[in-house]
Design goal:
Length: 84
């Protein structure tokens, strides 16, 4: 049922397979910041911000945590439109 053939741009030329995304969350809450730190400690963090402020956090089905400088509303539109 998962389609991994479609990709969405999460900023700065970085792409994520839309079928692998479980959750897109804002980066401001304490639980999300703890999740990011735990992923960093487990070497499961992918930083796609290119030095810019992190605005959203993407959780994948492979337990990777991906940081993006694009806000959650824009990512939602990309996911609903399959990245087009």
């Amino acid at each position: 049922m998962k389609e991994t053939g479609r990709f969405i741009d999460i900023g700065f030329g970085n792409l994520v397979a839309s079928g692998r995304i479980l959750c897109v969350a804002g980066a401001d809450s304490s639980p999300i910041r703890r999740m990011v730190q735990e992923a960093r400690d487990r070497s499961m963090l992918i930083d796609g911000c290119a030095g810019k402020k992190c605005r959203s956090v993407i959780i994948t089905d492979s337990d990777h945590v991906i940081l993006s400088s694009i806000d959650t509303a824009a990512l939602k539109e990309l996911l609903e439109g399959d990245g087009k």
